[in-house]
Specification:
heterodimer, A: alpha+beta, Immunoglobulin-like, 6-stranded mixed β-sheet, 4-stranded antiparallel β-sheet, 13 strands, 32% helix, B: mainly alpha, two-stranded antiparallel sheet, 11 helices, 72% helix
Amino acid sequence: MLRWLIPLLICALPLRAEEVVLGLSHSEVSITADFDGSELLIFGAVKREAPIMDPPLEVIVTVAGPSTPLTVFRKDRVAGIWINNSGVTMDRAPSFYALASSAPLSDILSRSENLRHDITINRAIRAVGISGRAGSVGEFRDALVRMRTGEGLYQVLDSQVTFREQTLFRTAITMPANLTEGTYTTRIFLIRGQEVVNWTSTPIEVRKVGLERFLFSLSRNQPLLYGLLSLAIAIVAGWGASGLFRMLRNG
Amino acid sequence: MQIYLPIAEVSVNAFLILGLGGLVGVLSGMFGVGGGFLITPLLFFVGIPPAVAVATSTNQIVASSFSALLAHLKRRNVDIKMGWVLLLGGMAGSGAGMVVFNYLKSLGQVDLLVRLCYVVFLGIIGGLMFFEALRALRRAKNGTTPRKRRERKLVHKLPLKMRFRTSGLYISIIPPVVVGFFVGILAAIMGVGGGFIMVPAMIYLLGMPTKVVVGTSLFQIIFVSGFTTLLHATTNHTVDIVLAVLLLVGGVIGAQFGTTIGLKLKAEQLRFLLAALVLLVCGKLALELLLQPSERYSISVYQGH
């Protein structure tokens, strides 16, 4: 299908000096029972009508998971024990965020373009409410980024996009095993002289399939049935094991 | 072997979870505790989200307790009449506990209060049992038989008396109902079966013989845990059936071995070991509250997909 889609997309786009054409190794990630992470290959080309200009083109690739609101709590010592004393609620924070670029990001992207397109991780996270004695929002956002980076959920891949002849680019993004279901968005930015020249985006569906899908839907749509099923399995397993051991003991 | 859990949305090592289930199963068979107070913190440790860990462990408790209960029923170590009386209080307590739990949740400090509950109750009960069992062990060593105390306790003074043949008791049903109710509240708040509270309460408050206590507490735990599982599945959607199956496969096998080990040990030894275990968990949780945590920040994602 991709083979048909790309020329179609190219035709549909208005004429610009340089345009990005994007391909993905797969547009769907299936979470099966033995899912242990996935590697996503993102590749593409720059389509241009005019000769290559100066300064050279750079490429930024982002992959963002579905955003959810969340609260980051900080523990403080109160009356001798460590308790969640203050928290900052983030309006939305992506469950996954990978940022790959063809050169160190600070060298190729201007502040204003980052603000406009929300490219860096800090821009992808929106903070609003502050409860308790929160110092600065930045401190809490940094903690969130640090923890999620540790889990492989947030990745900054400086100079990890291979960009050949100012035309062909490719990068590989490793998605960890603890992925959340939902629609992920891949964005490609063409940068020249710290300004975004052209960009495009495409969705990637991350879905549970098979037994995973069945159990997940059942737990949401038929919670009572699901609960009773869990209990039935528990009782049958308990009873079965007891019977089995009795048989083993009696010979 | 990695397995992706559909509700928890994390990938875990299947053998690790099987092992955890087995370990807790052995303990539940030995002591007649559901093992919730152990399995919930252990699941946190391997990276299961807390909400899923609490809800799923209640389901696992049903499985390992059921297998252990059958083993005890076979040996006629279950006072079913007492079990029903305790259950009566337990159900009411579990309902009341849920109300309390949701109230604490609205205050935003439910984590701390659950943790404090653990430390306080495990500490008190573990401490009491530890010293009592130590005295009993010393007496057994010295060869002197303990004096049978025949005082008229509160359980004999209250009205509504009932005869419990299996336990050899003729007492008022008010104390067992109150004990059941109290345990039900704690079960709902702490996400445990409540065996570690009920076993000592039955021994020290109701004066039941230790051998009967284990089977009878299992009887009550099964129903209260089952009820709690259904509440979690229908309100929070946090019961992970795949995680539960892994835990219970390990758990039911472990419980059978545990029951056999438990029968070989003396009652005082059992109590001593359980007390040591309870104190160990209590100490670990207390340290977490007292020492500066290596990670001061935590993320709390809003549920609801």
